[in-house]
Amino acid sequence: MIPLLDLRAQYRSIGDDIENAVIGVLRSGHYILGQHVESFEREFADYCGTRFGVAVNTGTSALHLSLLSAGIGPGDEVITTPFTFVATIAAILYAGARPVLVDIEADSMTLDPALIEAAITPATKAIIPVHLYGQMADMDPILAIADKHGLVVIEDACQAHGAEYRGHRAGSMGLAGCFSFYPGKNLGACGEGGMLVTDDENLANSARRLRDWGQQERYHHVAKGFNYRMDAIQGAVLTVKLAHLEDWTEQRRVHARRYAKLLGGMNSIGLPTELEDRRHVWHVYAIRTPDREVLRRALAENDVQTGLHYPIPVHLQRAYADLGYGRGDFPEAERASREVLSLPIYPELESWQIEAVAKAIKRDVYVQ
Ligand SMILES: *Cc1c(COP(=O)(O)O)cnc(C)c1O
Hints:
Aspartate Aminotransferase, domain 1; three-stranded antiparallel sheet; 2 domains; seven-stranded mixed sheet; binds pyridoxal-5'-phosphate; Aspartate Aminotransferase, domain 2; alpha/beta
C-alpha cells in the first residue's frame, strides 16, 4: 500500500531527537507554555518573517484569537472561501461574526480577488484568504481591496508553512497569519498545536492574554478568555522538527515535479500548478479529473491510497446550511469539490512510489 501520508516514516528519521526533547520536558516538571513554547514561538515567527508568534492549542484557536484580537465580533461580516476545511468558517462563527463566502479562482483554487468587492457591505470587517494545499492566495489584490475598504486581512496559512508570494512568507502579509501543527500538516506536532504570527504588538498581546483565560497576571482576568495554551511537549517537538522543515519542503517540491513530469499530457487529468511568483509547499497534491470516483477506485485496487480535499464545499455541508447558501452559489468551488483527487505526498515518499502511482493512473486512464 502506498499511503497518502506516512507519519511513521518521518518519526523513524528523527525519532531519537524527538524522544530526547520529550524526555527533557518530562523531567523538567513544566508541562504547559514555558521556555520550550517561547523558544518555538521565536523561531517560528522568525521563520515566517514576523516579529511575534503566539502559540496555541490548534490552528482553529489561532484563527479565533486573531479575529477577536482584531476586534471582530457580533454584527461583523468576514469574507472567506467555501473551498476550505470547515475550521475557517467555524472560527468566524466562534468570534460571533457572520461568514460571507466568495468563490475561488479556477487555477489556484484560492479566494478570487475579482469577486470580493461585490461581497463587501458596511458590516464587512475582515477577509480570510486560505492558502489552500500549500499555495498562497493572490495576496496583492486582496490587500489592495482590504486597504481601500479599511478591512483587516487574516491569513489562514494552516496548510502553507513556508509558502511564499513575491518573496513574502505565508503569515507575514496580513495583520495576522494562522498556522496549524496538526500531525499531518507540513510542520506537525505529536498531538495538537497552532500559532498566530503577526507584526502587531497589540494583537500579539491580546492573543497571548486570551489564550490563557484573559489573565493579565495570575488570577487577574482583564478579558473573557479561553484555555488555548500550547503544551510544552509540543513546543519541544516542534522546535526539533522546525530545523528540518526546509529540507522536507524541498523534498515535497521534488516529488511534485516528478508527478508533473510523469502525468503531463493526459487530456482527462488536470495537474496542479505552481503559479508565477509563488512558492508552493505542496501540503496536498491534488489532480483534477471529471471521472474521479472511477480513478479513485482503480487506484485503491492498485494499492494507492488517495484523499479528497474536500468532497463537499462548506456552503453545502448540512451543519452550515443556516449560512443561507445553496447549490449553484459557488460554481468553481462546487466543480473543484467534484473533481479533485489528492495523491500521496510527504517528504519521505520514494521515487519508485511516485512512479507506481503514475503508472496506476495511466493504466486506468488508457483503459477507459
Ligand atoms: C487544518 C486546518 C485548519 C485547522 O487547524 P486545526 O489545528 O486542526 O484546528 C484550519 N484551516 C485550514 C485550511 C486547515 O487545513
